[in-house]
Amino acid sequence: MLAASAVTARAQAAAVQPAPQAAEYTIPFVTKTLANGLEVIVYPDSSVPLVTVELAVRNGSFTEPPEFNGLSHLYEHMFFKPNNAIAIYRCDLSKTYGNDAYFTKNNCAETLKMKAQVGDVAYLSDLDKTGIVRNGTTQEEYVNYYYTATSKHFETLMHALRDSMLYPVFDESEFQQEIQVVLGELDRQESQPGYHLQTTMMDKLFYKYPSRKRPGGTRETVATATTDKMRTIQKRYYVPNNSALVITGDVKPEDAFRLAEKLFSVWKKGDDPFVKYPLVEHPPLPKSEAAFVTQDVDNVFIQIGWQGPSIGKDNASTYAADVFSGIVGQPDSQFQRALIDKGLAVSVDVHYYTQRNVGPIRITLVTTPAKAKQAVAALYQEIAKFTSPDYYSDAELANAKTALESSDLFSREKVSDYTHNLSFWWSSTGTDYYRDYYKHLRATSRADVDRYIKTYIAGKPHVGVAMLSEAGRIESKLTDGDLIGK
Description:
The protein has helices at residues 9-12, 71-78, 84-96, 100-105, 108-111, 115-118, 124-127, 154-166, 172-190, 193-205, 219-223, 227-237, 253-264, 273-276, 315-328, 334-341, 372-384, 394-411, 415-428, 431-435, 437-443, 446-456, 470-476, 480-484; strands at residues 30-33, 39-44, 50-57, 133-138, 143-150, 243-249, 289-294, 300-307, 347-352, 360-367, 463-468. By secondary structure, the chain is α+β, with helices and mostly antiparallel strands. The two termini are 27 Å apart.
């Protein structure tokens, strides 16, 4: 299933009739690569006078050995902290208004020597007046930072993003404060039952290198982080040839490219981090494995996971994975009828997460303790039928593709959010993959879906996890064998 935006309920509820063949679906963004390797992606939409400017970096947990696990996320938290441009601006103000105490205390004489490198910082006087929204996120295969404001402030946003990227300070006191903020986030995550289901599944599915699938990291690595490690991350991954500038909204592509060239050309190209620090190779599961997660929940949450296809190794199966998830997700599919309509489950879905470094396939089923054993058995009976020629109709195959296209259209309703979709696809698949995604999606055949299922699901080692309460486990009578279909 599409990672950045799931098939929407509206799309899933389409009638099970073959959709008429529509005109070829395209995603209207344009790109330009600067001489330093920075890819600039522009998606213009002048329906409202807003613009979003985002920097995406191929970083995140897939680059993290255990000692760095969670530090890409910590770096994200430091991104919008005061940088050298802000330091210059404050020193300029102190000099202008004769604040000698501030000037001396903050070593402004030295700070102002950086003006030749950093350039004009007068734009900062307007930054707080823009009404901006700013934030960042960290996932497995990318980190992104963005500003959104009215389009008249476009240049100010571009300038601010550039200076945050190129001239960080990593002030020690700010850093220690942010460590506590991130530890608080980890505590909140760990208070959610779903966190433990997700972590157990991913740790077992990617058993040799679990840190590569944990964007949040651990309390130990975050608590013992240093600013030297922040600079290591910056040096390795924060280079233009490992980054993309994504601009969406009320802006003309030619203006965006011109300003990107003006501001970001000073960013020096670096070594390809994935040549110098190659991604790990996740070994296949040697056998199926079961696990129970005890949490204070009323229902029983069952998840079955497989290692799925990787971008760059088996692209055809990534399209087939999305299509198949769309097929079995339709309310009238045989899969849903066997589990939902018969009252065995409250919900059930099949999800593939598009990734460059092994995307997981997961089936998640929610049921009650009383029905859990029967529901899991029925689920494995359905999995055994996935490759049957009559498991789904041509209409369901066509509608799955239409639903995926519709999902992308719905995601554009809020262009600022669509910016993050573009960043995700750029990082995990590349813009060429995403540009041609729907062409390949439409070409996906039954044979392609069948090959995907036989290669990654049917008869393959997998992980079965049940999250339930102590009382629920006793009532359900679930066993390890039930969870792995034995």
